[in-house]
Amino acid sequence: MQEQIEKIKAEVEAFDLNGSEAHAEAYRLKFLVRKGVIATLFDELKSVPKEEKGSVGKMLNDLKRFAEQKLESAKAATSNAPAEESLIDLTLTGRRQFLGAEHPVQKVLSDMKRIFYGMGFTLRSGPEIELDDYNFTKLNFPAGHPARDMQDTFFIRKSESGKGESGKDDVVLRTHTSPVQVRTMLSEKPPIRVICPGKVYRNEAVSARSYCVFHQIEGLYVDTGVTFADLKATIYSFAKQMFGSEVKLRFRPSYFPFTEPSAETDVSCYICGGKGCKVCKQSGWLEILGCGMVHPNVLRNCGIDPEIYSGYAFGMGVERTAMLRYGVDDIRVFFENDVRMLSQFE
Amino acid sequence: MTTEEKILNLIRSTEPLRSLHYEHFRFIYDAADRALHISFNPDEEADGSFFIEPNETVIDAGDIVVHTAKGIVVGFSVLDTDLGQNENAS
Which of A5, A18, A205, A300 has the fewest CB atoms below 10 angstroms from its CB? Predict the structure, then answer.
């Protein structure tokens, strides 16, 4: 009987399951079913001499266990599902799904666009790498204007003609979104009522108050009979919607090469109500934008007759508005993508 | 002590049988083989067997082979035994 068990064990070992379910089933039918080889050996146990039954019975148990383990191993190898199931730990706690959120700068920009859309403005965009001609010359920047200096502008290509002089072939990273206005006036006929949001670049030292790249949004309205009163009404309506209906406006005379007359606009500090606080530096006023009537030279440079048409333009920094709105005192945090900061705006 | 009582004692003193849940059992003595066969479920045909090793039982009634169906114990046989030779009962 022992010899028979050894022989069958050798057969079990030698049986090639071949990684297929058909072979595994053939193996099971031969060795492990009721009428199989091993069960038959158990039936024959009664005929084994009593003194050998213990050892033979133990050998049979070992043989059966060995045959069953071989089949289980083969099944696990042929079926991926049980293996994958074993990798799933149902007792693990769930993972939180983190949702992204609109960047605070984009949030402010979206609000601005929404307000201007409501006033009939449409959106225009242009390239960030811009010709000097569109960025400066057509906007009435005189030769030698400080903005043309390499201290303030990132030049992609600079002519050899020398510092401070305009070169038609010079290529710059746009320093404002005004060249989009130029492109619009060159390609469209009045009436023009557009806003031009986008990134602009300045060759400035990075600090808490300034950064080498930031967002601007500019507006342009060109038509017959456009006056400064229209500009004031537009800015007033925008400020009320953006900063609250209680804010007051102040226009201070200023200078920009591309507008005449020009003004800078302040709103009464909506945090302290004009009484003076840290945000408004105790002045009670917050500077929000620059504006003015489009300079006749600019209209002329863009093929629009200033004797027939007039227009106004305004522009503001989006980051500055976001800093005021959210009480952020360092512009750099808008560009560092620190999740601890951004998650506050979810 | 009746044969049923002896069988109950055997079940209670044999490790793999002790925790069995059953309502009743039947037994038959095979005089030719000197074997006592006990069945917990006559309707279920066994499809496998295993041998109870001597250290798993405290009563030396004989060698025990347990019969299973789909891994569940449905009966057992006691080999080389005189237990139950005088009566067949159910």
Answer: A205
Preceding peptide of A179 cis, ω within 30°: no
Q: Count how many domains chain B has.
A: 1
- Which of B35, B50, B80 has the CB atom closest to A64's CB atom? B50
Average pLDDT over residues A21-30: 82
Which percentage of chain A shows pLDDT scores above 70? 93
To the nearest whole Å, the CA of A62 is away from the closest chain B CA by: 9
For residue range A285-298, list pLDDT tens digits in order.
888 899 999 999 99
**Residue B15 domain-assigned?**
yes
Kindly report, residue by residue over A119-168, the tens digit of the pLDDT: 999 999 999 999 988 998 899 887 777 767 766 888 888 776 544 455 66
- What range defines the domain where residue B14 resides? 3-79
CA–CA distance, A318 with A121 (Å, rounded to integer): 18
Smallest CA–CA distance, residue A61 to chain B, in Å, is 6
The verdict on A183 touching B (C-beta cutoff 8 Å) is: no
Tell me, yes or no, if A45 comes closer than 8 A to chain B by beta carbon: yes
Measured CA to CA, the distance from residue A149 to residue B14 in angstroms comes to 101
Whole-prediction pTM: 0.56
Per the listing, tokens 């609000």 go with: A111
Is residue B8 in a domain?
A: yes
Q: State the ipTM, two decimals.
A: 0.81
Residue A83 tokens, joined:
């293996």
